Amino acid sequence: MKRRPPLTISVRDRVRGLLLGFAIGDALGAPAAGIPGDSFCRRFGRICGFTTNPLHPYLGRLQPGQYTENTRLLLDSVRDYSKWGSFCGRARQETLRNWAERIENDPGHARWPGPTTLRASQALIEGPPNPGLGDSISATYRCLPIAVLVYTKSLISEVSSEVKLTHAHSDSIISAGIITELARDVLFGYAIRKSIERSLEAAAEQLGASSLIQKCFTAIADRSELSALCTTYGTGARCIESLPMVCGILARSASSPRSRLLDAANAFKPGDGDDWDVMASGNGGNTDGIAAIVGSILGAHYGESKLLSLSGQVEAADGIRSLADVLSTRFGTV
Fold first, then answer.
1. Is 269 within 8 Å of 283 (Cβ atoms)?
2. Helix axes of 69-84 and 287-302: crossing angle, nearest 10 degrees
3. CB distance 69 to 26 below 8 Å
4. Spelled out in words, what is the top-level CATH class assigned to the domain 11-328?
5. What pLDDT sits at residue 3?
6. What span, in angstroms and rounded, lies between the C-alpha atoms of 63 and 53?
7. What are the extents of the domains in the chain?
8. Cβ of 281: how many Cβ atoms within 10 Å?
9. What is the mean pLDDT of residues 258-267?
């Protein structure tokens, strides 16, 4: 087992950064989620901080700093993993059922739940897990607490169990494994780029070579402009698009964590026209999910203190800190 490096930033500060960074990225990217980049920029310009998009067909009600169902699902999983200390299928199924019932009972307050996750969670109301075949990256979000818990054994068993509650596609499992392994290494103080490389290598060793992993290696070696990365690798919700963008952004140098977070929130997938039907256009970007993952890794690396200019403005920040503090007490216990 590799030796743990010295932690110059406290575990509590890193775990707070992991969760708050996710919420911050989610809230930053939400106004442009699913909208073709040229259309959003033409109307609103580049995202420079928390903002709104009253024209968004699903997230138009959100105020600056409010996050989507992505963060709600993450925080639900934090509560379960903090309580049980590892994957507990019964508890996780119950939580996802409750989440789906909340969406069904009050759809007007839903914040654009991912269709694969929602359908699979609705299926849990009536019976056993029936994961969908969608290859979105959304199951990855729920796996981040596993990074705090698991150190002494492979993550893949816990991650696979969590992902398969809603997603059956192999790319979803691979993506969740890579991001959770990356978050774990960063929490222990390893450099981000080296951690990306190691997590990709570990995924290839444990799960086999794949075009997704190769695309991520190519993305971290790419030094072109952000717009070129968006065009080359895409910024959709599919793993084959979102994960290379996450890796490419994290591997790039930046003047500050904030600037890299804003790069992620502006990771628009280029598209033509003015089509705002985000479910049909196919040209929209996963700006909320990409920025959320980037934010969580940056937060785990730098700690909450480096995100203070944004964390004070994000929704329910104090509640997220409290959840992070409970989760951090289980750091490296599995």
1. yes
2. 40
3. no
4. mainly alpha
5. 46
6. 9
7. 11-328
8. 18
9. 93
Contact between 250 and 23 (Cβ < 8 Å): no
Q: Considering all CA atoms of the chain, what is the largest pairwise distance in Å, rounded to the nearest integer?
A: 53
- Distance, first Cα to last Cα, the chain: 14
Alpha carbons 221 and 273: distance in angstroms, whole number: 32
Amino acid at 244: P
CB atoms under 10 Å from CB of 46, counted, come to 12
Residue 282's identity, in one-letter code, is G
Query: CB-hemisphere CA count at 13 Å for 275?
Result: 15
In order of 73, 155, 323, the CA distances from 95 in angstroms are: 9, 21, 16
Q: Please tell me the distance from the alpha carbon of residue 27 to that of residue 72, in angstroms, as a whole number.
A: 12
Mean pLDDT of 47-70: 94
User: With contact defined as beta carbons under 8 Å apart, do 93 and 122 qualify?
Assistant: no
- The answer to whether the predicted template modeling score (pTM) of the entire model surpasses 0.85 is yes
Q: Are 300 and 263 in contact (CB under 8 A)?
A: no
> Which tokens is 133 given?
């075949």
Place of tokens 């789906």: 100
Contact 237, 137 (CB under 8 A): yes
How many whole angstroms separate alpha carbon 212 and alpha carbon 250? 17
